[in-house]
Protein 1
Amino acid sequence: MVPMTSASENPFLSREGVERLARLARLRLDPAEAAALAPKLGHILEHIERIAEIPDADLPEPEPSPATTLRADQPVPGAGRAELSRNAAVTSHGLVPVPRVVDASR
Amino acid sequence: MSAIREIVSAVTSGATSAERTALQALERIARREPEIGAFLTWNEERVIADAREVDRRLASGESLPLAGVMVGVKDNMTAEGYPASCGSRILEGFSPGYDATAVARLKDAGAVVAGKTNLDEFAMGSSTENSAFQKTRNPWDVGRVPGGSSGGSAAAVAAREVPAALGSDTGGSVRQPAALCGVVGVKPTYGRVSRFGLVAFASSLDQIGPLATSVEDAARLYDAIAGQDARDSTTAPVPVGDPLGALFRGARGLRVGVLREASVEGADAQVLENFAEAVSALRSAGAAIEEISVPRAPYAIPVYYVVANAEASSNLARYDGIRYGPRDEAADLESFYAQHRTRDFGAEVKRRILLGTFALSAGYADAFYKRASRVRALLRRDFAQAFSRVDAIACPTVPAPAFRFGEKVDDPLAMYLSDIFTTPASLAGIPAISVPSGFSREGLPLALQLMAAPWREETLFALSAAYERETRFTDAAPPIAA
């Protein structure tokens, strides 16, 4: 069996590892939440590591996605700005505002 | 017994109207919902208006194969005039304003949307306990879960609030709740039913399917929704065939493989006993029985929880709190994203996003995502080889009957293992059906699962209808439906 992650590498076995993944996933976990999640995720990961039991030589390459049939492009009327922004909690001048992205001081 | 055939016959003959049928269904829903909690929303005015439109179409001479049939729609599909919350706070109040193709096709056939049904948040779960909004109870024992993630659709059909419903199945989310609630559930071949208007969870697996109280009724819904759609490029130009004609072909001449790996998968003793009886009934119905092996089936759960979570972490990246859902302000964009995603995603969704993020992260993607995809390819080969010998493969749908609320909430792996028999067909993209197969000693429903080669749904309908005629387990309804 090929080990997939050694215990020291397994990011779910540490609070810091879970916090790092949470940052990548744009989630915030407080230290207590991260510490509580680590063993649960580690337990799931141990089960997932069973896929390492199959010898490499037996494994085919992943199958390509099935071919999709594309229709010809056709212009159709869109729903319009009012309809598309109807679900936004806040609009301003017909747009959906977001926090400033560009630093105004530069 | 076909509830849908009776309704359509009564409505089209003028013995009753779609409007009267709708009013009766609304009355049943109002009476049973306090105990069951299958629906997140329903809209009486809208239902009555839609039913009147069906009556008008009938009066103008249209032929409608589902005239007046009330259907529940899982709340991860869009239906005009209804919200689509996916059971999540992050989509609370979101109203998409258009019909999913499957919903539009049901309406074209004369069905009326009764309302939107409860689910595990973003269809992630096997008990419907992960809904952010309410608990759905199993009509056979209200102290137990209905299964999931299409638990609302299964419970609504089992309680006979509506004769049929739509669910979505990514790793078993139609078949597993159908099994726990004692109704029929179908997962069509990947690419058979349009996902336009279905909120994406794991795009290489998601498929819409019907739930109903009989094989015939499931086939009637399937017949209406199946087939290529220009708005979903993953639907294939493969003829749907004649699923209703298949119902009467019988099991004679069909070879059924009993899945060898089913007996070593940790199913409980009474499930295996019940499965052995189901195999005998298939033999009595005329099928030729042999043993078949799908050697990599035991790897389906670990493969599924890599592939599905990886795709989910990518699909759910779009939920940023900006364009819909409840909104708070934040100092910068990164904080805005994290604040909304942290506040509005539930625990299981966060867990799966983290697992998927890990499986796709630098340094681990080859060992996890790529390797899981290669095992998946091997599993598909196993199935292809098996289907060169048999027409269908049989195994139980679930390893145990419905469990109690809270029993598996703190043990996600135990919850994931509820899908041990359903994930293989999902990964292989093949069609599968769950049919009631009797009851446990506690009186809880058990179920038989049949799988077939891609696009061979007709084989499943022929075989399961023959099994149903042999056993009549689909005639049983829970006391609440009396």
Protein 2
Amino acid sequence: MIEKNELILAIETSCDETAAAVVQDGTKLLSNVVATQMDIHQKFGGVVPEVASRHHIEQMTVVLEQAVTEANVTMEDIDAVAVTEGPGLVGALLVGVNAAKALAYAHGKPVIGVHHIAGHIYANRLEKEFEFPLLSLVVSGGHTELIYMEEHGEYEIIGETRDDAAGEAYDKVAKALSLPYPGGPQIDRLAQEGKDTYNFPRSYLEEGSYDFSFSGLKTAVINKLHHLRQKGEEIDVENVATSFQESVIDVLVDKTYDAAKDYGVKQLIVAGGVSANKTLRARMEQRFAETDVELAIPPLYLCTDNAAMIGAAASVEYHKQNYASLNLNANPGLMM
Amino acid sequence: MYKFTTINENETQRLAKQIGEKLMPNDVLTLDGDLGAGKTTFTKGLAEGLAVKRTVNSPTYTIVKEYKGRIPLYHMDVYRLEDSEEDIGFDDYFNGEGVTVIEWSQYILEFLPEERLQINIEKIDEERREIKVTPHSDHLNELCKELKL
């Protein structure tokens, strides 16, 4: 029998945040500790895998101890240890997976492997209960996916990017504009000041498809910058940022709206790092205001990578007793 | 070296598919070309030839993505390993059961096996591409001989 009020200690190390959290019943956050490495990777203009792994190792035990202390619990009170098993950088994932297995083994607790994207979706459950059927738009540096859910723990990918993720396009365009990493917040900030003057393409793909494509847009922006520089013309950085962002957001909002309507969902969850984007949030709110679909976007601290979301997603698996063995391994290309 | 000029994206993908159909476990391919040259398009063709069902998209964020097919496909973008000595377990992929495709391979030259298929895509204009295929083993040379547009 699974008792109520279960406590899950969760770990997330898939990219450049070392995170641990204690979550009660998948809905209540008792602690949420995140040690970011962003300032370190900023110097390199992107995440450097081996640097990330080294920092995870340095931070892991500190973050874990802090998560348990802040939650005011002991390891005895914990019912299961959850960890992101993928997708992500293999060296980074391994730090979390091994920490989780060591803890679980030492304290005789079950270990639960969680898909990073399931975590992003479940970040919302710490704020608002799910209403099924629901649709989730997951947008981040590595993902752009529309995921349909009829019940807890069941994920159907109904659309995904055919080339680059939205966040990847942001980072590459930011780099072409010589903006610091990470590019998303920089472009969003500049876009508030500019106008959509460059008319970059919007890729809707074939009629009825919920897939995305951002590679053509990225190439169009970079080619445009190249041409302007060659002709010695001035580049209006704000207008480039606005024009690029408008193209991305138009497609994201339109496709999500169509999918939500076609699937008759009750709730729409926007998740992943790019859901921190102010313009995307505002436009989603605008578009869904007149519908019956409830829009849920997590607060900023739950949009970026964190372990609380992993604990929330793990709760569902805990109730199914869907435990991993101590053979659990990092899986950089884990499919949903 | 074998040279092909493809007239559009479809033809590029068809050429890649032919290669994909003939690949064997442990084959390693390097795939280089400028932004917008069609590396992703080419990899989609390869994946089709390997009977991969899923959408093949950018591996940039996680560096490597794995796909199930007739044999597994490991798709790598090692751009972020520039100036790095990191070995992300390359041998496990190269000697694994599948085919490895590597974009930006110049950053991991020291890890590449000698026997590999080198592919360079160059943009001629918006639609047309020149594709150079250089085999570095007998088996890969045999494979190249059978390719036709």
